[in-house]
Amino acid sequence: MDEIWVDRDGTRYGPYAPEEFLAYLASGHIVASDRARIGERGDFEPAPILAARLGAAAAAAPSPIAGLRSAAAAAVRQQPGPTPGQAAVAPMSGTAARLPPPAGFWRRAGAYAIDAVLVVVILVLLSLLASGAFTGSPPGEMKRGLVRVISALDGRVLAFGWLVGWPLYFALLESSPWQATPGKRVLGLVVTDRDGARPGFGRALGRHLAALANYLSLLVGWLLVALDRDKRGLHDHIAGTRVLSLRQPPVSAWLGFAACLAGLLALAVFVAVLLAGLG
C-alpha cells in the first residue's frame, strides 16, 4: 500500500506507513482537522475519513493488512515517532477505523444559516453592481438610508442567484476536497457518501435538489435529522450522504442554535427592509 502524506495548514508531513498514520491519529499527534492522502497524487481529505477507510480495508483484507490495527497499537506503545507538530485538538476517542460522529440537527441548522446569510450578502452586492447603484449615484445618495440601497437591487440577479447560484454553491463546495461549505467549515462539519468518501458533484447536486422533498413533507424531512440514529435527513437518505463532525469533541449544539438564530434574524431584517424599499 502506498505511503500517506499529511497536510496541516498548507505544510506537508510524511510520508507515513498506514500503521504509522493510524497510530499517530489515535495518539493525537495527527488531529481531526488535518488532511491526508495516499500517495503523491490526488486530493487531500479529512484525516479521520481516510483512517476509517484504512480501518475498513484492514478488517476485510487478509494478512498482512489484517494486522493493521494491532500494528498501529504497537507503534503507539513503542515510540511516539516523528509528528507533524504538536496536536492542537484533543485525541480522537474510539478506534481509528470508526467514522467521525454524525452532526446533529442544531449544528447543521447553524451551518445552513451561516451559508444563507453569506449567499444573501453576495447576491446583494452583485445585484447592486448590476443595477449601477455603486457607479451611477453620487456618494452622498448612498448614505441616505438602507432602504434606498435595497430598492436598487436587481431582481433578475437575485432570481438567477437563488435558482442557479444557490444549488451550485452547495454542490461545488461539498464535492470539493474540503467537502464543506463555509458554514459547515466554521462548525467543523463535512459531507460524505454512505462510506465516508468524498461525494461527487452529481451526488452533491442531487443532495441539494432532494431537499425539495423536505419542503414537500412539511419540513418533516429536516426534522428527521433530529430523530434518525445516523442524523440523516430525508435528502441524505435519497442522495446517499452523511454529514459528520470532524472536531472532537464536536462543536456545542448551543453554538449551532445561536448561529441558526442569528442567521434567521439577519435574514428577517433583510426581508423587512427589502419589503419597505419596494413599498
Describe it for me?
- By secondary structure, the chain is an alpha+beta fold.
- It has 12 helices and 6 strands.
- The protein has a 4-stranded antiparallel β-sheet with strand order 2-1-3-4. Strands 5-6 form a two-stranded antiparallel ribbon.
- A hairpin with a 2-residue loop joins strand 1 and strand 2.
- Helix 1 packs across helix 2 and helix 6 packs across helix 8.
- The N and C termini lie far apart (66 Å).
- 34% of the residues are buried.
Strand line-up of the largest beta sheet? 2-1-3-4
Distance between the termini: 66 Å
By DSSP (H or I, 4+ residues per run), the number of helices equals 12
Strand content: 5-15%
Number of strands: 6
> Rounded to an integer, what's the Rg over CA atoms?
22 Å
Helical proportion? Answer: 40-55%
Secondary-structure-based class equals alpha+beta
Low-confidence stretches: 60-82, 85-97, 139-145
Rounded mean pLDDT is: 76
Write down the overall geometry.
globular
Q: How many strands, which pairing sense, and closed or not: the largest β-sheet?
A: 4 strands, antiparallel
Could you state the order of secondary-structure elements as H and E?
EEHEEHHHHHHEHHHHEH
Count of discrete structural domains: 2
